[in-house]
Each structure stands twice: as structure tokens, then as C-alpha cells.
Amino acid sequence: MCGIVGYTGQDKAAEILVSGLKRLEYRGYDSAGVALEDRGPDGDAVLDVIRRVGKVAGLESELAARHLPATCGIGHTRWATHGRPTQSNAHPHTSCDGRIAIAHNGIIENFAELREELASRGHVFKSETDTEVFAHLIEEAYEGSAAAGIPATHDLMAAVREACTHVVGAYGLAAVCVDEPGVIAVARKDSPIIIGRGERGSYVASDVIALIDATRDVVVLEDGQFARLAPEGITYTDDQGEQIEPAVTHIDWDVDMAEKGGYPDFMMKEIAEQPRVVRDTLVGRLAGTGELDIDELGLTFEELNLVDRVYVIACGTSYHAGLIAKNLIEGWARIPCEVEAASEFRYRNPIITPSTLVVAVSQSGETADTLAAIRDVRIKGAKVFGITNVVGSPVARESDGVIYTKANKEIAVASTKSFIGQVVSLTLLAMLLGQVKGKLPRGQTRMLFRELGDTAAQIQRILDTRAEAVGQAAAACKDAPSALFVGRGMGAAVSHEGALKLKEVSYLHAEAYAAGEMKHGPIALIDPGFPVIAVATRSAVYDKVVSNLKECEARGAKIIAVATEGDEDIKQIADHVIYIPEVRDAFSAITATVPLQLLAREVALLRGCDVDQPRNLAKSVTVE
Ligand code: F6R
Known about the structure:
Largest sheet: 8 strands, antiparallel
Bound molecules: fructose -6-phosphate
Helix content: 25-40%
Strand content: 15-25%
Strand order of the largest sheet: 3-2-4-1-10-9-11-15
Radius of gyration: 26 Å
Distance between the termini: 11 Å
Structural class: alpha/beta
């Protein structure tokens, strides 16, 4: 949710900030803005605060026309939480006198009371946001406030530190002040902050992708740590103001990896990367002995053997990966497994014992509900195992063990390759639990592992051969007001992901139903031409799915089937068939999801939608 950037150095800040913000747009794109140090008409130091509603491109044009000379500034791209996406709610926000400006990512939970207190002391608010209180708190700490009993610090870093003591909530914060030219003060709690020092200046951002052109050696700021960036260097302090030396992390991925690589959009690039994701996620996971090797597990085999219940907690697409895992964990390890939306789970009182394993799945590793659920169950004594795509993310740090999906940076807001990485990782975990529980012999593990690896080539075959079939199916449902996705078993789980993908990128309403549930209500929706998208791959429940589809066909539905190569019978009821290679049912979710991702993208393009940045969404959901 929201991205922040800051630069101070020898180069023009406006261009650097805009290029960083463009890379952070996946975090939100309701509005964008910058605060740049400048000189007023009488030569006094001032801050130019320039904000535009909409994507960074609008801000970019404005800045290009103004040729601002500043070499220090901060920027923000917003996903609206408190306050509508208007210019006055756009960041940066300023203090009453306009001498301090801040960019903030996170949520201030006690903002209503802080706002009331600050207003009673004469502060005038210009926006509806929670963030603005931070600007006024820093102002009070900088200038001092007799009414609040706060002495003046006349030191931006100290003022930010003081302001943070009043705030309850999450923040990644960057602040500038006209009285301290070239200085950016940075604070972090529960929102990511990355800091780097390049040859020509110092940088801060919400994500390494915004500063990777300048440096590959970065500091991932921890909660409660602060940084003071200046053109000549960076100093780090703890919450008492004592200097610290945080660890430096070297980033070994390439900036090209984050670019489109010749594809028309990031979504297509990321779908096309999925064979690689499968292969990379499996590298080094099977020992010569036939045992699975997940050394970062953080749990001993003895501890795993005691597990008698698994909860998979996650949100959105990651939750759907959990639905697939349930089938595998119960099937191979015979351990009861429940899958729950983290946003529900955290407010329940689930039965947790020391032998409960909680598997938290999160691409970003910073989803607020998933994190809150992790914290809660750890207090209750559960072991937590994280599956995430982001090294060093809060989910990784707060879990007992972690599997990193090898998706690499995912830019398109709709998750595709991360989902495949999650499903492959959860499959490994299910196999491991099966081994530990003595239900899955090594020979069988080896065979399953090999077949799991084969899905990489099978996905590639779908990508290479099914574009035309997907295109025809997309044309058939692009003008429908709504669509239903159906399947049974693994197919039901995949249907949920297919429906989510379609609605989020094409804005076409879609729902998923277990095929057998259709006749209990949803079949009433079907009238001639209504699209029903079915996962009808060969499995033990294939015939059942087919008979459910016949019921839809009888009512005039337009049926689009994802079916197994060689299945000619399906053509008798389906108007369009997208064939996928035959795989074991346990792995069918991996292959069957791919045509549904392609279908969603194609429908979205036909409807003129932006597939990489769908409206109202953000890549990281750090608010509950
Ligand atoms: C949909 C999508 C979202 C995320 C959800 C959880 O394509 O990407 O539904 O899956 O917001 O995000 P993570 O996995 O980062 O916890």
C-alpha cells in the first residue's frame, strides 16, 4: 500500500524520484506527488510540493515542464485508505507553515485522537488523511510546543523520532525540512523501508526495485530504526538516538528481471516465466536418498511428526493456493488441514495447540491480515511456517521457518507466477509431511517429485500452443455481464483462482462454484449464452463434472472447458475447449490454472483494461 521514495545527492531529484515512483506504482496509483527543496522569489529556502491525482505519468509531465533544480526531495504514490483519491489527500503532506513535508506508507490507528489534540493546539488540517497528523507532530517536535509540553529540537531526525512516540500504527516515513537542506529523515515500523548509498547520493524507498539502478548494497531498515540521509552519507540510529550499524544486504537480481523483457505487459511476462518458477522452486529439494530437503524449515522432523492439524492462512490468490494444498496435505500426510482467509482467522478463536502447524502464504510477505494472524497464533503456541516471495519480508522474519518461492519480483498487480511458486512450494511441504508421517515412501516421493518437475514443460506447452483457443474463448465471454467458474476437487480450487483473475483484471463479474453445488442455486443464473468456464480435466470426478456441465448446457450456457488432451467427448457439450497435457490429478492445479490466467488477460485486453494495474487494487495490502 503506497510507495515512498527519497533522494539527496548531486543530481536532479525530480527525475530520480519519478523513475523510482514508476517502479513503485504496483503499490498503489491513486495519486502521486513530490516535495522538492527549492528557493523562493526572495532567495529563501522553500519546499515545492507538487501532487497529481492518478498515475505517476501525470506527475511526470508536470515535473518535466517545470525543470526544477532541486537535488533533494521525497515522493509518494498512493493507494487511498483514509480519504478519497483527491489532490489534497495526495502526499507529500506538509506542516502548518509548509516548512516540513512527509511521505508515509502505512496506517496511523490513533489518528482521530491525534488530529483532535493537534487541532485543539491550533494546527490546521488540509486533508482527510491519517498521514497528515505526522507532519504536524513533527512540526511540534521541531519548533517545540508549550501547549503540548514538548521542547524544540530544531533537529529533523530528533523531531521525527519524537513524533513516532505518539503514533500507534504502521509507518514507513520520509521527511524533509527547509531548515535542513539536503537532509531526509526516515523512520520505520511495520512498513518496508530500504536505504542505499550510490556514487552520487543517498536513496530511500519502499522497495529495492526503486533504487537498484543506483546501488545493489542496501539496508533493510528494521522496526524502530531511523536513518538520516544526507548527500555525503547516511547515519542510522535506534529509537533512543544511539548510532547503530545495520547489516547490508547485497541484491543479486538484475534490473532487467523487473522490466517487461519484450512482452506487451508484465502480466504476460510473468505468466510466461512460470516454467522457470517451477524449475527454480524445485532446485536442490530432493536429496539422493529420496528425502526432501527443505533445510530452511526451522522445524525438526520430530516436531513435524507431532503435527496433528494444519491451518493454511492467506488472502486472495494466496488463499487459493491454500485450497489446493488442503487436498495434498490431507491426501498424502493424512493430517486434517483447514484453509482460512487470514482476515477472518485473526478475529476468530481457532483451536491452536503446540501440535498445530500454521502455514502462512503471502507473495509480498507483508499482507497486514496474514501478519496479524501469524503474531496471534505464535502467542498461542503454534509453529508457523511461511511461504513467501520476498526475502527478509515480515512474514519470513516472523515465521519459525520459510520456503521462498522463486518467482522473483512480481510487478503485475494480479498474481500469476507467484501463485504457481506457492502451489509448488506447498506441494513440497505436503510431500514432506507425508514422508515424515510415514505415509509417503521414498520411491513414491521420487516419482512425484519428477512428475512435479515435468509440469514446467507442460506449462510451456500450454503457453506455446493454446493462444488461439484462449483467444476464441475470450471473445466468447468478453461481452457477458457475468461468468461462472466450476470444477470439482482440484478443479474447484482452480475455479476460484480463475474467477478472481478474471474479475480483477477484466472487471467482468465472475464467481466460482463447486460444480456439484450449481443445482443448489447458481444454476438459476443460467440463460442462453451465459458463460460457464469449467475445469474438466481427467480425474476421479471427471464424469461428475461432465454431468453438471450437461445440466448447464441444457439451459443454454456457453461452455468453455479446460480439458485433458485427447478428450474428444468434451466437445459434445463444450462450445470452446482449451486442452492441457495430461498430468496426475495432484498436479492438475498447476497446469489448469495457466489457461485461466491467459483467459483473464485476454478478456481484459479485449475490454480495454490495464492488465498490469487494475483499478482500485495494490500489490501489497498492508492495511487490514
Ligand atoms: C490477486 C492477488 C491478491 C493477493 C492478496 C494477498 O491476483 O494478487 O489477491 O494474492 O492480496 O497478497 P499476498 O500474497 O502478498 O499476501
